[in-house]
Specification:
9 strands; 2 domains; 9-stranded mixed beta sheet; DNAb Helicase, Chain A; alpha/beta; 465 residues; 17 helices
Length: 465
């Protein structure tokens, strides 16, 4: 039996080659592009609306790109946009003949009876541009898959990232002129001035920390470091529950150390203020159980998403992008840095951690959310003599962590080392060791060990601990 003849694309078809994507004209709508440009010439005010939707790169026809850029230049100078001014600026740039001359500009105006449909036509132009970007990106992905020995998980991450970036392109640019940034910044300053609250980022629930940092901000990488037993995971869980329950902020928790059941049990005991040790041993009271049930109700309704898989940085990036698209993430927490695996198996561990650190910072910027990552510290701080307070240099396999982090927080409890001799029983020191946009300082917090919970010192009598 003869096998069917297949061409290079893998399709059956004998000697007739089917039409491929490479043989076809890319998605475009020249009439819609002309209508958008004509609308601006008819009514200059239309350009403000068009700018919100389109960039010059969204136009398929090169002549239209040049015309739109010239319009933007006139708009920035507060000059009228009409046939005379547009012809003049294109002539000065030696582009008039390239776009088809003054006659082509006139024909665009004559094609558009009204500017009323400019928004709809701009939407068409944008959609065609997105389709072209999808084709280009898909082609790049196909080519890479055929021509590379790259790790398959890295390829998946790159492919997903490229597709995700297309949907963000309308509001993101690789660079912008400072003029637009200054305008946005002044508007932000005005809003902040009008607000009564001093916290402009994500509130942690700790008053002194929020006042010192104004909250955790989108794009920030926050590193929380401590030696074992200091309560760094408990501290992060307190921030998570405050953000999700009190602020209704969607939070993604990637735990590489504890199971999701262990995390939820800790959250429940902390939120209910029930002795966690008694709960784990089964010796809790009916009142404690009632508190746990009430806390469970609050937690169940909160937008917290927990993943206790052994995630690589590629997994975390992919899952975070999906959660952002589906639920609008406001915070990402990773526990903890040194348990994460990178893509470079042949690299030194310090280099792998540095690559992961940079990837987490990039993730914070790409998704415009704060990312908290817990980090272990070296044992060196415990051999330091009298003072065992951590320093930035104690970050294990630190590499680029110090450079990548916008904020570095250290937890230290004196009574952990000095036991009964400690003068700060029930108190934890939170050291803001680095803050890119603010001062460093040490904040005292109350630590309720039996609840594995931190609180503002002013809110709690710590002398009983």
């Amino acid at each position: 039996m003869l096998e069917p003849v297949r061409n290079k694309t893998g399709f059956e078809g004998g000697s007739v080659k089917p039409q491929t994507a490479y043989d076809r004209l890319p998605p475009q709508n020249i009439e819609a592009e002309q209508s958008v440009l004509g609308a601006v010439l008819l009514e200059n005010e239309a350009i403000a609306m068009v700018i919100e939707q389109l960039t010059a790169g969204d136009f398929y026809k090169d002549a239209h790109k040049k015309i739109f850029i010239a319009m933007l230049e006139l708009y920035e100078k507060n000059e009228p946009i009409d046939l005379i001014t547009l012809t003049e600026i294109l002539n000065r740039k030696e582009q008039l003949e390239e776009i088809g001359g003054a006659s082509y500009l006139s024909s665009i105006v004559n094609l558009v009876p009204t500017s009323a449909n400019a928004r709809y036509h701009a939407k068409i132009v944008k959609e065609k541009a997105i389709l072209r970007n999808l084709i280009v990106t898909s082609t790049e992905i196909i080519t890479t898959c055929y021509d590379t020995d790259q790790d398959v998980h890295e390829l998946l991450d790159q492919a997903e990232s490229k597709i995700f970036n297309i949907s963000e392109k309308a509001i993101r640019q690789t660079y912008v002129h400072i003029k637009s940034v200054v305008k946005d910044t002044i508007e932000l300053v005005d809003k902040l001035f009008d607000k009564k609250e001093r916290i402009t980022g994500l509130a942690t629930g700790f008053t002194d920390l929020d006042e010192a940092t104004t909250g955790f901000h989108p794009g920030d990488l926050i590193v929380i470091g401590a030696r074992p037993g200091m309560g760094k995971t408990a501290f992060c869980l307190n921030i998570i529950t405050h953000a999700a329950i009190d602020g209704n902020v969607p939070v993604a928790v990637f735990s590489l150390e504890m199971t999701k059941e262990q995390i939820v049990l800790r959250m429940l005991c902390s939120e209910a203020e029930v002795d966690s040790k008694a709960v784990r041993s089964g010796y809790h009271s009916k009142e404690d159980y009632r508190k746990l049930v009430n806390a469970a109700g609050r937690l169940s309704e909160s937008p917290i998403y927990i993943d206790d898989s052994f995630n690589s940085i590629l997994d975390i990036r992919a899952k975070s992008r999906r959660l952002k698209a589906e639920h609008g993430l406001g915070l990402i927490v990773v526990d903890y840095l040194q348990l994460m695996s990178g893509s470079g198996a042949h690299l030194a561990r310090e280099q792998v951690i540095s690559d992961i650190s940079r990837s987490l910072k990039a993730l914070a910027k790409d998704l415009s959310v704060p990312v908290i990552v817990i980090s272990q510290l070296n044992r060196s701080c415990e051999t330091r003599g009298e003072s065992k307070r951590p320093l930035v240099a104690d970050l294990r396999e630190s590499g680029a962590i110090e450079q990548d982090a916008d904020t570095i927080l250290f937890l230290y409890r004196d009574e952990y080392y000095k036991k009964q001799d400690s003068l700060k029983k029930g108190i934890a020191e939170l050291d803001i060791a680095k803050q890119r946009n603010g001062p460093t300082k040490i904040i005292d917090l109350a630590f309720l060990e039996k609840f594995t919970k931190f609180k503002d010192l002013a809110d709690h009598e710590y002398s009983e601990y």
